[in-house]
Amino acid sequence: MTLMSGCFDIEPYSYEEAVQQSFWVDVMVQEYDSILYNGVWDIVPRLEDKSVVHSQWFYKVKQVAYGSVENIKAKFVACGFLCWK
User: How much of the chain is helix, strand and coil, in % rounded to 5?
Assistant: First the structure.
């Protein structure tokens, strides 16, 4: 992974940026599989009189000394303070 550290210099700002690079797609698939495996959520039909909680992907490159990459992470987070009607 150290040889590829140049690929991870910049964390994507949006989902659209992340899906353009295959290693971020792989990390997002791992996060999604983890969410399904752990039963974190259930997909249900939306009720007309209820708000929808906003969700967002966050991307992080963890580095160790001299800038080598230790780990890359993608987290899917529900933002309860933002709701859509």
Answer: 35, 35, 30
- Condensed to tens digits (0 to 9), the pLDDT of residues 18-69 reads 999 998 999 999 999 999 899 988 778 888 887 777 888 999 888 777 767 6
Q: Which pair of structure tokens corresponds to residue 25? A: 């797609």
Q: Which residues pair with 83 in a beta bridge?
A: 53
CA dihedral 17, 18, 19, 21 (to 10 degrees): 100
CA-based torsion, 16, 46, 78, 61: positive or negative: negative
Domain boundaries, the chain: 2-84
DSSP secondary structure letters along 25-42: HHHHHHHHHHHHHTT---
